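Sequence in, structure out.
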Amino acid sequence: MTNDIKKQIEQELEQAREVCSTSGSNSSDCAAAWDVVEELQAEASHQRQNQPIKTNFEKYCDANPDADECRLYDD
């Protein structure tokens, strides 16, 4: 999840709370504000799922490409 979407979620959460406190928790404005928050959270979740997960060994090899155990040989 990128920091941009994280910030946007935080802003929309604040906005939703404000709208609901002003117009009431049963208002259509309140529901719409929370819908925006849910959509952003769903997008953040999709972004996390699409990122490849590296093993600790892969992270080690990224940091230490010259290590013997990280060398790749052609057959």
